[in-house]
């Protein structure tokens, strides 16, 4: 596929994702995909990799997130194969994009399991997605998602710790607990050197926010 052909595919992909996710309200909307796309391109400039695969996977990574589609897993690959197939994208490229999207989720690996991501392209896109869960934007997205799932801001009756498996067994949950369940763990799960550098400041901002949150919560 020529450069102009690739550019046209990217533009059509952007429109497809924007049309499908434009009204999404959990922080997994078009603008999330757009930020991940921009960040992935930034990381790729530092780390290398096949930029066409990186761009497609970044744009399409949340096209049908199972958490917001009644737990239906595998739907994203079906949509991607159908969409990119109609654009005559090479089958091997489609396969690579689907493999990246299928292995993106934090829930597949958690904090302890080894990442399933095998390719440099996948590691770059995964870092870009996880970076969007950190910092000021990550905080905003956490509360947007929490509202979608009817989570309280904070439930002080649940003990806070960083043992993900324990938190997931509990009946109650809150957006603040999600910081300890996932967000504060992401810095040490970055795949690339560039991702690690970008994650450092955003992680510090999370810690600063939580310090202020609990200072206000525990006011005497």
Describe this structure in words.
The protein is mainly alpha-helical. The protein has a single domain (3-217), classed as Hypothetical protein af1432 (Orthogonal Bundle). Helices cover 61% and strands 0% of the residues. The protein has ten helices and no strands. The protein has helices spanning 3-21, 30-47, 51-60, 75-86, 91-102, 120-131, 135-148, 164-169, 175-181, 193-217. The longest helix has 25 residues, at 193-217.
Which labels suit this protein?
220 residues, mainly alpha, Hypothetical protein af1432, 61% helix, globular
Care to give the gist of this entry?
This protein is mainly α and 220 residues long. 61% of the residues lie in helices and 0% in strands.
| Total number of domains | 1
CATH architect. name: Orthogonal Bundle
Q: What top-tier CATH class fits best? A: Mainly Alpha
- What's the number of helices? 10
């Amino acid at each position: 596929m020529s450069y102009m052909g690739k550019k046209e595919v990217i533009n059509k992909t952007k429109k497809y994702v924007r049309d499908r996710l434009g009204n999404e309200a959990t922080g997994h909307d078009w603008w999330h995909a757009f930020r991940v796309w921009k960040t992935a391109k930034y990381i790729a400039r530092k780390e290398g990799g096949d930029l066409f695969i990186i761009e497609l996977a970044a744009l399409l990574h949340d096209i049908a997130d199972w958490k917001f589609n009644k737990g239906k897993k595998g739907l994203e690959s079906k949509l991607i194969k159908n969409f990119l197939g109609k654009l005559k994208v090479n089958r091997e490229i489609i396969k690579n994009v689907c493999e990246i999207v299928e292995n993106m989720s934090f829930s597949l690996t958690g904090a302890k399991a080894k990442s399933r991501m095998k390719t440099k392209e996948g590691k770059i896109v995964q870092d870009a997605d996880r970076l969007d869960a950190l910092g000021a934007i990550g905080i905003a997205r956490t509360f947007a998602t929490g509202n979608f799932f009817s989570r309280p801001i904070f439930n002080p009756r649940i003990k806070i710790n960083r043992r993900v498996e324990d938190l997931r067994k509990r009946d109650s949950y809150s957006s603040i607990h999600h910081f300890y369940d996932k967000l504060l763990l992401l810095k040490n799960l970055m795949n690339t050197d560039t991702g690690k550098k970008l994650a450092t400041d955003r992680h510090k901002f999370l810690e600063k926010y939580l310090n202020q949150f609990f200072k206000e919560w525990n006011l005497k």
